[in-house]
Amino acid sequence: MSRIYLDHAATSPIHPDVVEVFTRLLPELYGNPSSIHDTGRKSRKVLDDARRTFAASIGAQETEIIITSGGTEADNMAIFGTAARFGKGHIITSAIEHHAVLNACKQLETEGYDVTYLPVDEDGLIRVSDVEQALRDDTFLVTIMLGNNEVGTVQPIAEIGNLLRDHAAVFHTDAVQAYGVLSLDVNELGVDFLSVSAHKLNGPKGIGFLYQRKGVNLSPLLFGGEQERKRRAGTENVPAAAAFAKAVDIAQKTMDAKTEEYLRYKEIFRNTFTDQEISFKENGANQLPHVLNLSIPGIDIEAFLVNLDLAGISASSGSACTAGSVEPSHVLVAMYGEEASEGRNSIRFSFGIGLTEETVTEAAVKTARIASRLIK
Q: Which of 69, 99, 124, 307 is most exposed, with the fewest beta carbons within 10 Å of its own?
């Protein structure tokens, strides 16, 4: 039985062309890019070329890109690095952020910072008016994700950025789930920091970057050498950076075609469920094209995921299944409330490379049959 992978929002397979770049360069680029000899300069050129690709993909300057170990480090660098500059004050975030942001903010609360967690409506959307009302004179950081990893809701980042133009607060967005799927421009968005991870767009794990707007200061988290313009110590992983750049290049060139493809996949699921008379509701609005989160009344999510896995389908839920109990997703709780059934009967399908209309149709049919069998 061949598996059908529908969990690309969690992590994505490495593109074959990216694998080729990575494996080819691993034995070749062993020089330290900070070294001035020829071996080091070869690594430096490849690193600079990768940085140029990253910058161009978001309308930034090369000097504004800090290469990191991934999205979590990039988020933490933006949040803790900004907080360290102020020493005290107020932060605004949302209740549906990735835990790389939420837990960073919770840690800062233990250190005496004040954090406001904005609510969302039932579509998973933040109201710009709520951001405006939460702003205070001592607000030094606003961190709102661009696209939600569980329900796919795309937030009004440009509108929030416009609101903050007349405020001293620094604006960070976690774009890990949206990068490579949506066309992004940091100047149009009005953000000061933007976090990205390679493994969400068919690149290798363990590498990402943080965009830092020129003129916006940041305290480093790591201390050592003077890499990344003294902002992030540690010898750069040049082969991984080159592989990441290849993944970015592919994503930029195929974005429109992939969007159309993923929207067709969503329609296949909707039509299949409708034809099989499976009651369902989509969670989230204004969604990323590759994320489909469905609430199916009457199912138990833990049993559903186990049965899907046995049928060869890899999908996920925002719920944490442990020892027969289900803890609802914090995103769905924020959208519907702690007692809502959506928190316990929702499943996420997310699409990417390696899928076809045939395999998605097969998965949708199998999923509908399992749902029909499990609905109480």
A: 99
